[in-house]
Amino acid sequence: MSTIMRSFTLEAGAELLKAFRAPEFIFPTLGMPVAFYVLFAIVIPNNANNAAYLLATYGVFAVMGPAIFGFGITVANERDKGWLSLKRAAPSRGFSYIGAKVCSTLLFASISVAIIYSVAGFAAGVSMPTQTWGLLLITHVLATFPFILIGLCIGFLCNGNAAVAISNVFFLAFAALGGLWIPIMVFPSGMQSFAHFLPTYHLSEIALSISGAPGEREIGYNLLIISIMTLVLLGTTALAWTKQRNA
């Protein structure tokens, strides 16, 4: 095994072990999205199509939490404790550190989405072709990456206390204003226009299009905008990484 691969494997194992030893991270991350889904899709449904519609939007909600909190807060805390400075002095590469966190985030995001899918299929009566389930799963997992970049920016630029507050603000604003909890068509026109500047809106529209939810959607427009947003976030993350290394 090469040195790079061994470094990455050890980092990933340590990251997963750390995550599984933190119930204060696991239970809210995995439990809150499915609890919200059960409440709004099963307990107080508005119509027969509500469960299928919310499956698409709450899938985005489910992957957002592990990415923003898993990176924004943990990276900031590790910076405060001098862990990143120690990492720079160690022979391990920066890729291993970031890659291990990405793997951990993708695992928890996938588990969170799988729980919602199980509830939707077995308890809410959502029925879709197998290929639609698969494509929706891929969409939701890929939706993690813009939020990973947002979490990294928060973690690189903020201290631990500020990261907690800022991560919560981003998390709640993206969910509420991006149409994940309530369809944006019930918002005032100004809020509907603002939603177009949020990644959650475009990701949920893509997921809704795949799931076959009723309504006219511009899937090409949503893909273009989310691609541009991701590239901008990637550049911002690179600048934040450089800044914290030179600090």
Which helices and strands appear, and what pairs or packs with what?
Layout: H1 3-20, H2 23-43, H3 50-80, H4 83-89, H5 94-122, H6 130-142, H7 144-157, H8 160-177, H9 189-195, H10 199-211, H11 219-246
Helix pairs in contact: 1-5, 2-3, 2-5, 3-5, 3-6, 3-7, 3-8, 3-10, 6-10, 7-11, 10-11
Structure, explained:
The structure is a single chain. With 247 residues, this protein is an all-alpha fold. The protein has one domain. Helices cover 81% and strands 0% of the residues. It contains eleven helices and no strands. The two termini are 34 Å apart.
Number of strands: 0
Strand content: under 5%
Q: Overall 3D geometry?
A: globular
Structural class by SSE content: mainly alpha
Main beta sheet: none
Number of domains: 1
Count, helices: 11
Q: What is the H-and-E element order?
A: HHHHHHHHHHH
Provide the gyration radius in Å: 19 Å
Which percent bin holds the helix content?
over 70%
Mean pLDDT: 85
The end-to-end span amounts to 34 Å
Low-confidence regions: none
Structure in a nutshell:
Helix 2 packs parallel to helix 5 and helix 6 packs antiparallel against helix 10. The longest helix is centred in the N-terminal third of the chain and has 31 residues. The protein is built from 11 helices and no strands.
